[in-house]
Amino acid sequence: METYELNTNVSTVIDENGSLQKFYSLTNQLSKTRHVRFTNKLDDADNIEWHFKYRGHQLTLQYNIYNGVTLMPQKTKDINAAAKLAVKLKQAV
To answer: What domains can you pick out in the chain, each with its CATH number?
Structure first.
């Protein structure tokens, strides 16, 4: 199993009031329109993280009951890719 080093200092809020339903809607959108395949899923009671690769960049879509839906890079080098994808996801919200 891969280990991930999430850089939460650069996470981008997609929808701060986002519900679990919104999270699943965004994962479906990523899968269908961006051809993303999720590589690892962590599901806790108040936090869900789904890891995926997008155009060679390792990213994580997260749902947290306190922070809503956020997107973050798994590595510092993927910050720009995460920011660009976040803009596209925000438009879909």
So the answer is: 8-92 (3.30.160.690)
